[in-house]
Write a structure and sequence with these properties.
Blueprint: E1 6-10, E2 13-22, E3 33-39, H1 45-57, E4 60-69, E5 72-85, E6 88-100, H2 105-109, E7 115-116, E8 119-122, H3 129-132, E9 133-143, H4 145-153, E10 163-167, E11 173-176, E12 181-187, E13 195-202, H5 209-217, H6 237-246, E14 257-261, H7 268-280, E15 301-306, H8 308-314, H9 328-337, E16 340-344
Parallel strand pairs: 4-7, 14-15, 15-16
Antiparallel strand pairs: 1-2, 1-10, 2-9, 3-6, 3-8, 4-5, 5-6, 9-13, 10-11, 12-13
Length: about 350
C-alpha cells in the first residue's frame, strides 16, 4: 500500500497496511495498582525496615520487591508497604507484576534480594476490561494474510494478539507496542475496497498527543534543525530517542571539542537527546543508557556543557526506587570513563 503509515501484525504475519489511526493518541492511563499479601513471610533487610516504618507512619515506600515462592520469583514495582499482621505483609504495587517462572525459575531462585514467602496473593479485585482497555481504529487498511482470509470467509476469527508498527516513509518499522485484540472491521471511507480495523488495546499503551507530532516529523527524514527535540514535552522525548535510534547513521570522523546545549536537559531522555545532537547533529543518537555509551570519541575529546545548572538541579536527586535514571554526577563520571573531559559553561 502506497504511503502506509501503520502495519498490523499477528506474530510474523502482516494483517494489514493502514493509512492512519484514530484513538491511539491520548494521555495514557496511570499505572494500575493493586493490593497484595505476602503470606508466610519473614521480612529481612530493606523490607524489614520498610515494615517498621509502615507500622509507625502508616505506610512506607519500597521501590521494587522480588518475592520468591514455590512457583518461582515475582517482581513487584513501585511498592508501598502498608503493614504487617503476624506473618502476612500487606503491600500495594503497580500491576501487572514482573514474573520469573518456568524457564526462568532457576535464575529467579538465585536472586539474592528476593524475599522468601509461602505465597504471594493479590487481594484487590481484577479491573473489568472496560476500565483497562479502549478501542483504537486503524483507518484505510489493505487486508492481508489471516485478516483477508477472515474477511472473505466471514468467520471473524483472527490470531491474537495483534500488534501495530509505525512505519517510516521507506517502509521500515519505526515503532510499536504490546498486542491487542481485533474486535471488528468495516468498509473505510478512505478508499473503495479498504477497511477500518478496530483493535482493543490497553489504555496504558495509548501515546501522548505530542508523540503523533514526533512520528510525523520523522516520517520523511531525520530532522535538520538543531534543538527540535526540545519543542516536545519532557515526558515524550523517549519517543524522539526511539526514532533517532532507528534512524541512526555512521558518524563523521571525531572532532576534539563538542558543545552540548543543556538549557532543556530536565530528565534522562532530554540528556540523551542533547548528547546525540551534540556529537552527531540534529536527530543524532549515541545511547540512552550509561551502560550503552560507546560513542566515537577521540583521545582528549572535550564536551562543553552549556547551562549545566539545569541538569544539576533536575537530575541531582536519587529517588527511592531501585530502578532510577542516572544522576547528574553519574552522567559526568560516565562520560569521563568513556574518555570525555566535561567542561561547564
Amino acid at each position: 500500500m502506497r504511503n502506509a503509515k501503520y502495519a498490523l501484525l499477528a506474530g510474523a504475519d502482516v494483517l494489514a497496511l493502514c493509512a492512519d489511526v484514530d484513538g491511539l493518541f491520548a494521555e495514557p492511563a496511570p499505572p494500575a495498582r493493586a493490593r497484595y499479601e505476602l503470606r508466610g513471610c519473614e521480612p529481612r533487610g530493606p523490607l524489614a525496615r520498610a515494615v517498621t516504618q509502615a507500622v509507625v507512619e502508616g505506610s512506607a515506600p519500597q521501590g521494587e520487591l522480588y518475592v520468591r515462592t514455590a512457583d518461582g520469583v515475582s517482581g513487584l514495582r513501585d511498592v508501598r508497604v502498608l503493614g504487617i499482621r503476624g506473618d502476612v505483609v500487606t503491600v500495594e504495587a503497580r500491576t501487572p507484576p514482573l514474573c520469573e517462572r518456568d524457564g526462568d525459575r532457576d535464575r529467579g531462585r538465585g536472586r539474592r534480594d528476593a524475599v522468601d514467602c509461602a505465597n504471594l496473593i493479590r487481594v484487590s479485585p481484577q479491573e473489568p476490561e472496560t476500565a483497562t482497555h479502549t478501542e483504537v481504529t486503524f483507518l484505510g487498511c489493505t487486508p492481508r494474510g489471516p485478516l483477508r482470509a477472515a474477511v472473505e470467509s466471514g468467520t471473524g476469527e483472527l490470531p491474537a494478539p495483534v500488534t501495530y508498527r509505525r512505519l517510516a516513509s521507506v517502509g521500515t518499522a519505526a515503532s510499536g507496542v504490546r498486542g491487542g485484540r481485533v474486535t471488528g472491521w468495516a468498509p473505510s471511507g478512505h478508499e473503495r475496497g479498504l477497511l477500518d480495523v478496530t483493535v482493543l488495546v490497553d489504555r496504558r499503551d495509548l501515546r501522548p498527543p505530542a508523540v503523533a507530532d514526533i512520528w510525523e516529523l520523522w516520517w520523511w527524514a531525520r530532522p535538520e534543525e538543531p534543538g527540535t527535540w526540545a519543542r516536545f514535552p519532557s515526558g515524550t522525548r523517549g519517543a524522539w530517542l526511539e526514532q533517532a535510534r532507528r534512524h541512526s547513521e555512521t558518524p563523521d570522523p571525531p572532532a576534539d571539542t563538542y558543545h552540548l546545549d543543556g538549557a532543556h536537559v530536565v530528565d534522562a531522555d532530554s540528556f540523551w537527546c542533547a548528547l546525540g545532537e551534540a556529537f552527531l547533529g540534529p536527530g543524532g543518537y549515541l545511547a540512552d543508557d550509561l551502560d550503552q555509551l560507546r560513542p566515537p570519541f577521540a583521545p582528549g575529546t572535550t564536551l562543553v556543557w552549556h547551562d549545566a545548572h539545569v541538569a544539576r538541579t533536575c537530575l541531582g536527586v536519587v529517588p527511592r526506587a531501585r530502578e532510577r535514571p542516572p544522576t547528574f554526577e553519574e552522567i559526568v563520571v560516565g562520560l569521563a570513563c568513556s574518555g570525555v573531559t566535561v567542561e561547564f559553561a
